[in-house]
Design goal:
By secondary structure, the chain is of the alpha/beta class. It folds into two domains: about 1-185 and about 345-400, D-Maltodextrin-Binding Protein, domain 2 (3-Layer(aba) Sandwich), CATH 3.40.190.10; about 190-345 and about 420-465, D-Maltodextrin-Binding Protein, domain 2, CATH 3.40.190. It contains 16 helices and 18 strands. It has helices at about 40-65, 85-100, 120-130, 140-150, 160-165, 195-200, 215-225, 240-255, 275-290, 320-325, 360-370, 375-385, 390-395, 405-415, 425-440, 445-460; strands spanning about 1-5, 10, 20, 75-80, 105-115, 135-140, 150, 170-175, 175-180, 185, 190-195, 235, 310-315, 330-335, 345, 350-355, 385, 415-420. The strands form five sheets. It has an eight-stranded mixed β-sheet with strand order 2-1-3-5-4-6-16-7, sandwiched between helices. The model is unreliable at about 1-15, about 20-40, about 50-55 and about 60-70 (pLDDT under 50).
């Protein structure tokens, strides 16, 4: 059902799913993502009042969209998911219907919330004690939600064998335990044309033999010298969101030997983000713009398909448009190995069980069902998202051994690494993005990364290295 706040009524949709078409009230001191431990006592008091008002509005709207069916002997479990597009939402609803039909104990009642403000809705619901039982969580937020007490470990609720079959990048960990698992992931790649590499006399890299950093640099400089391309490489830097800058560019930092944080302790970025490896990476990144190899801000997202750029660094979601443009001439290639292996970002939206759920065994049964190969394959074929199990890929039309998207599964399986599992990730992401954009604009690399490390380490110290729980 779709709730229209203007008309005050619901329109029935497929499967009785509720699609909430209102934006949650924004609490001004919380920014893009409300993190409870970052608020003062006064802010927390205000937040509780805001949360109660916001969740009352939210639940009033959801109640208006209730399917109205009687539960009978079944136990109803409310599910929250971000609105992610028609194909994904329709496939999720279809799979919920399948789960509800295949057993008689549980009935999943889905509600789809707007993407903007989704995190705030979850935190507000937790503060107000009105959490759903099952919820979708963006993978970088899993550690923060776990630390704050919003979600519980999946141990004992989802079969060990089911979780073991899921690609590591699609499993959300915190403090040594599994808190979330997703049906799909994504994969970054270099897209170009076979004819371009032939013209530049460059070999075609493979998964086993990717380009070295030196080879990649040689290609970029040949392309620049050819005079055909003013800016040979599109890195997507016109997107200024921290989510893109960390997902896209921290893996390259890792390939140089650095990282966003010291993952052995998760208590400091010192040495990882401002050491010699990070310095080499930052110098290389800055030189891309100084030498005119990359445009700081492309006028649109179509530099490759319009022939302005010879190569583009982006994800599997761009493949359909690129296939239309280049046809059989299209190449999907692994990113270069800058000395410490090929690395791409890993982790997308994942399923979790709220700590407040009264029937976690039912929630676990649903998540277990969604992670089976048949459901994984169906989701991937419906949406183009990368499947996260070998069996799911094999059963998929597009990602099977002969599928035209198989390369993305192989890239994800071999090279994807999740972002750091720390409750401080929002701070880490913002600090890194500010530093990288400053470096792009010519700031001293060491100073930029030192400033980022100071911000990250201060936040971690302020919260006692997250050794205690962050729930209200």
């Amino acid at each position: 059902m779709i709730f229209s706040p203007e008309e005050g009524e619901c329109e029935t949709g497929r499967g009785g799913a509720g699609v909430l078409a209102i934006m949650p009230v924004m609490y001004p001191e919380m920014g893009q993502t409300l993190i409870w431990h970052s608020l003062s006592l006064t802010q927390r008091a205000r937040a509780r009042r805001w949360a109660m008002a916001s969740v009352l509005l939210l639940y009033t709207a959801l109640a208006a969209c209730d399917p109205g069916t009687k539960p009978g002997d079944r136990i109803e479990l409310v599910l929250w998911k971000n609105q992610a597009g028609r194909e994904e939402d329709a496939q999720t609803t279809a799979q919920i219907d399948q789960f509800n039909a295949k057993q008689s104990r549980w009935r999943i009642v889905p509600q789809f919330l707007p993407q903007g403000g989704y995190d705030q809705s979850i935190v507000a619901a937790s503060l107000a004690g009105r959490m759903p039982c099952i919820l979708a969580v963006d993978s970088p937020m899993v550690a923060s939600y776990a630390w704050a007490g919003h979600i519980r470990p999946l141990d004992g609720y989802v079969a060990t064998g089911t979780l073991a079959a899921v690609s590591p990048s699609a499993v959300g960990h915190y403090a040594g335990r599994i808190y979330a698992a997703g049906q799909f992931d994504a994969a970054l790649a270099i897209f170009t044309r076979r004819s371009i590499l032939a013209q530049m006399r460059m070999r075609i890299p493979t998964l086993d033999h990717p380009w070295s950093g030196e080879e990649f640099q040689t290609l970029l400089e040949r392309l620049k010298a050819s005079g055909i391309y003013r800016y040979p490489l599109d890195l997507g830097t016109r997107d200024d969101k921290a989510s893109w800058w960390t997902y896209a560019f921290s893996p390259i930092l890792q390939s140089f030997g650095g990282d966003l944080i010291d993952r052995r302790s998760m208590t400091s970025a010192q040495g990882a983000l401002n050491g010699e490896a990070a310095q080499r990476f930052g110098n290389w990144f800055q030189a891309l713009f100084a030498k005119g190899l990359v445009n700081r801000q492309e006028p649109d997202e179509n530099a490759f398909v319009r022939g302005r750029a010879a190569l583009v660094y982006t994800g599997d979601w761009a493949a359909p448009a690129y296939r239309t443009y280049a046809g059989a001439d299209l190449l999907v290639l692994p990113p270069p190995d800058f000395g410490h292996g090929v690395v791409i970002g890993g982790g997308s939206w994942q399923w979790a069980i709220s700590k407040a759920c009264s029937h976690p065994e039912g929630a676990g049964a649903f998540i277990d069902f969604m992670l089976q190969d048949r459901q994984v394959a169906a989701m991937s074929d419906a949406t183009g998202n990368v499947p996260v199990t070998e069996g799911g890929a094999s059963a998929s039309r597009d990602f099977g051994p002969r599928g035209n998207s198989r390369m993305f599964f192989d890239l994800m399986r071999r090279f994807a690494r999740p972002r750091p599992a720390t409750p401080a990730f929002s701070v880490v992401a913002n600090a890194y993005t500010f530093a990288m954009r400053d470096i792009m604009d010519g700031k001293d690399v060491q100073d930029a990364f030192d400033d980022a490390v100071d911000d990250i380490d201060q936040t971690i110290a302020d919260h006692h290295a997250y050794r205690t729980g962050g729930h209200p």
